[in-house]
Amino acid sequence: MSLWTLVFLVIAAFSAGWIDAVVGGGGLIQLPAMLLGLPSASPAQILSTNKISSLFGTSTSAVTFGVKVRPDRRTVLPLAILAGLGAAAGALVATKIPMTWFKPIVLVLLVVVAIYTAMKPSLGARTALRFDGRNHYVAAGAVGILIGFYDGAVGPGTGSFLIFALVGLLGYNFLQASAKAKIANVATNVGAILVFAAHGAPLWALGVTMGLANMLGGLLGARTAVARGSRFVRIIFLVVVSALILRLGYDVFLA
């Protein structure tokens, strides 16, 4: 690997860390950059190395959100534990299910998410929980395992789907949802890495190097989100979801 390739990947990791900390979707930057910079690497190496790098950033932003926002642990625990298990299961089948099966479905879901969020300006402005007691935690666990499976099997847009589910289904504001999504994302990264490490031979040195840059981006992004509040997170959410729609739309219809 040349020095310029390494610099390119480090810059991409930093940018992805910032985006991931605010609304998720950093894979929109980091994964294509790795595919471009490492054309001879296998898909398993790319996916597993990407997860290692992302883990640094998500862990840092999760700690920052945990200190600044103090998300409800009773919600975070079932969400994160089941998300990690779902991601491990998703990673196990990642090499057996063609990506082309998922992309059209994900594209439709993202379009629905974007339209729904754009047409409801008050969505996520404040926390108004939709479920009480056990039903709330069951809903959180269901969100975790379903989106965790998706992250392990496919990946792009996981953070955005987590945030939307926590806002639209459970009733959290965007800032609280972003905090919980980061903690769940740590669990999905760990679950997927454990599986990929056994099967995909991650590029550990590169993953750690990019991870340090991702960590700095995640720290800055989390602090920015906390300082700017839910309205800022909502705007960035719509921008990232729109970019994901364009990217997946290109893959489905033009690639």
Give a brief rundown of this model:
By secondary structure, this protein is an all-alpha fold.
Q: What does this protein structure show overall?
A:
This is Probable membrane transporter protein. Belongs to the 4-toluene sulfonate uptake permease (TSUP) (TC 2.A.102) family. The chain crosses the membrane at residues 52-69, 76-95, 101-119, 131-150, 156-175, 187-212, 232-250. The longest helix is centred in the N-terminal third of the chain and has 26 residues, at 43-68. The protein is mainly α. Helix 6 packs across helix 8 (174-199). The mean pLDDT is 86. It is globular and about 50 Å long. Helices cover 82% and strands 0% of the residues. The protein has one domain. The two termini are 27 Å apart. The chain is built from ten helices and no strands.
Q: What is the 3D shape?
A: globular
**Number of E-state strands:** 0
Query: Biggest β-sheet: count, sense, barrel?
Result: none
Query: What is the total number of structural domains?
Result: 1
Helix/strand class = mainly alpha
> Helical percent range?
over 70%
Low-confidence stretches: none
Radius of gyration from CA coordinates: 17 Å
- Measured distance between first and last alpha carbons: 27 Å
Count of separate DSSP helical elements: 10
- As a percent range, the share of strand residues is under 5%
Q: Strand-and-helix sequence, N→C?
A: HHHHHHHHHH
Q: Overall mean pLDDT score?
A: 86
Describe the secondary-structure layout:
Layout (H helix, E strand, L loop, with lengths): L2 H20 L4 H11 L5 H26 L4 H21 L5 H21 L13 H21 L4 H13 L3 H26 L4 H25 L1 H24 L2
Helix pairs in contact: 1-2, 1-3, 1-9, 2-3, 3-8, 3-9, 4-6, 4-8, 5-10, 6-7, 6-8, 7-8, 8-10
